[in-house]
Amino acid sequence: MRIAVIGKGKMGTLIRSSALAKGHEVIGCFDNTDKDRLNVPVDMLLDFSHRDNLDWVLDYTKKNGNGLVYGTTGLEEADLEKLQNISEKVPVFYSTNYSLGIAVLKQVIEKVTPLLREDFDMELVEKHHNQKKDAPSGTALTLLEAMDPNQEYQHVFGRQGMVGARQKEIGIHAVRGGTIAGEHSVYYCGQDEILTFSHEALSRQIFVNGALKAAEFLQNQIPGMYSMKELIN
Ligand SMILES: NC(=O)C1=CN([C@@H]2O[C@H](COP(=O)(O)OP(=O)(O)OC[C@H]3O[C@@H](n4cnc5c(N)ncnc54)[C@H](OP(=O)(O)O)[C@@H]3O)[C@@H](O)[C@H]2O)C=CC1
Ligand SMILES: O=C(O)C1=N[C@H](C(=O)O)C[C@H](O)C1
């Protein structure tokens, strides 16, 4: 497959080397400083960069008709709408986390939350490296959606000061430090018992493997929006 990578950072460079090792042709890593260099057709774009690249990436995709594997987090609602719109023309794979473990964790959370939420307080903690730009992580927001699909809870991002007794809320907490590749824990805290569901990324390779698997999957799909659910079920 002929691939172009959007992003030249930690993920972009690892995707490039891993795709080459799998025998794909990678024409390069790009961002908005050198987008004009991306002037040949490709089969697939993999974007792990920053939302500021989204508009030109979508313009290129509209013209070229390539598939798009999108992994950049820190998106706004309007960005998601843009991805949804272009998925009417080309196949788009979107996930805030390309690891198999988080895909399974999301399904676990969807199943256990209805059994616990009446009697247990729910909290979410994510930990990442000290270079991460967005907080909370995209994965934390995805897990939050799985915990509260109908938005019945107040979402409290960190607590500070005289917060008073806990209300019908889910607390979301972001830790940033060192080289943590990514850790997500969902806590269900009840009377004298706690259930914790955790996932720890030990390296970024798990995200890269998932993203390349998504690209290979997407190659054979018609236009539409695809997610990890389709890859694992
Ligand atoms: N979905 C998933 O499974 C995963 C998603 N991610 C997400 O992928 C993205 C990249 O992560 P990572 O590689 O670790 O980050 P890095 O900071 O290492 O790389 C980010 C890349 O985006 C570019 N960039 C940063 N800011 C801007 C901007 N304002 N406009 C245009 N380009 C910009 C950087 O260029 P420069 O260095 O010049 O600023 C760099 O090339 C993040 O959103 C992260 O959350 C990460 C891991 C897994
Ligand atoms: O920036 C990162 O590193 C990661 N970002 C994604 C996120 O925001 O959820 C996925 C993973 O946790 C690593």
Write structural notes for this entry.
One of its GO terms (molecular function) is 4-hydroxy-tetrahydrodipicolinate reductase. It catalyses: (S)-2,3,4,5-tetrahydrodipicolinate + NADP(+) + H2O = (2S,4S)-4-hydroxy-2,3,4,5-tetrahydrodipicolinate + NADPH + H(+); (S)-2,3,4,5-tetrahydrodipicolinate + NAD(+) + H2O = (2S,4S)-4-hydroxy-2,3,4,5-tetrahydrodipicolinate + NADH + H(+). This is 4-hydroxy-tetrahydrodipicolinate reductase. It is an enzyme of class 1 (oxidoreductase). Helix content is 34%, strand content 27%. The strands form 2 sheets. It has a 6-stranded parallel beta sheet, sandwiched between helices. Helix 1 (10-21) crosses helix 6 (205-218) and helix 2 (54-64) runs parallel beside helix 3. The mean pLDDT is 98. The longest helix has 17 residues, at 100-116. The chain is an alpha/beta fold. The protein folds into 2 domains: 2-94 and 205-232, Rossmann fold (3-Layer(aba) Sandwich), CATH 3.40.50; 100-201, Dihydrodipicolinate Reductase, domain 2 (2-Layer Sandwich), CATH 3.30.360.10.
Task: Set out the fold topology.
Layout: E1 2-6, H1 10-21, E2 25-30, E3 44-47, H2 54-64, E4 67-70, H3 77-86, E5 91-94, H4 100-116, E6 121-128, H5 138-147, E7 154-157, E8 169-176, E9 183-190, E10 193-200, H6 205-218, E11 224-226, H7 228-232
Parallel strand pairs: 1-2, 1-3, 3-4, 4-5, 5-11, 6-8, 7-8
Antiparallel strand pairs: 6-9, 9-10
This protein binds NADPH dihydro-nicotinamide-adenine-dinucleotide phosphate and the ligand O=C(O)C1=N[C@H](C(=O)O)C[C@H](O)C1.
Considering the protein shown, what is the CATH homologous superfamily of the largest domain?
NAD(P)-binding Rossmann-like Domain
Described by the principal axes of the CA atoms, the overall outline is: elongated
Question: What is the total number of structural domains?
Answer: 2
| Rg, alpha carbons | 19 Å
What's the main sheet like? 6 strands, parallel
* CATH architecture verdict of the largest domain: 3-Layer(aba) Sandwich
Q: Quaternary arrangement of the chains shown?
A: single chain
Distance between the termini: 24 Å
Can you identify the CATH class of the largest domain?
A: Alpha Beta
Stated plainly, the CATH topology of the largest domain is called Rossmann fold
Task: State the helix count.
Answer: 7
What's the mean pLDDT score?
Answer: 98
